[in-house]
Amino acid sequence: MNSIAVFCGSSIGASEAYKEGAILLGKELAKRNITLIYGGASVGVMGTVADTVLREGGKVIGVIPTLLEEREISHKHLTELIVVNSMHERKSKMMELADGFIALPGGPGTLEEFFEVFTWNQIGLLQKPCGILNINHYYDLLIGLFDHMQNEQFLQPQYRNALLVDEDVTALLDKCAAYVPPAVKTYQTNK
């Protein structure tokens, strides 16, 4: 893996654990010489992971739409900052640049970005690992929802199993590196 897109909050969150987890991820990305692709902000969990990768000598590419360039306070010291016209272009560019995706704690925007890449993997538009770094059990309820989707037969087991989850940065990155995509989703007709 040469690059990983990280979806995460432009806020720092209520727990110091979120910042600490972002720092651990940033250090490990730099150590493995994996380029960070992210939303381009200098604030929140986003800024923390980017600052850490840069401080550790790694490469960081930010992708930010003009709408958010000032609001999210774009990072001025990145390896590269790509300014795009829309949120759709932002996601498209991040998908193009990244070899995999990881969600850190964040809000609805983080989930929206992560769900899109996860869905695109199901239908075969992408075949890249999608992981959740479950810092401080932040995503326990979401992971439970994925299990519920599978139990209720709205998510096929191979796609539930393709969702990579770990609380440990090193373990999650190892899972991403070893990822083998499942077959493209098929459908059964209603009987």
UniProtKB/TrEMBL annotation:
Belongs to the LOG family. The keyword Transmembrane helix does not apply. Gene3D superfamilies: 3.40.50.450. InterPro entries: LOG, LOG_fam. It is an enzyme of class 3 (hydrolase). Its EC number is 3.2.2.n1. The lineage of its organism: Bacteria, Bacillati, Bacillota, Bacilli, Bacillales. Keywords: Cytokinin biosynthesis, Hydrolase. This is Cytokinin riboside 5'-monophosphate phosphoribohydrolase. The keyword Oxidoreductase does not apply.
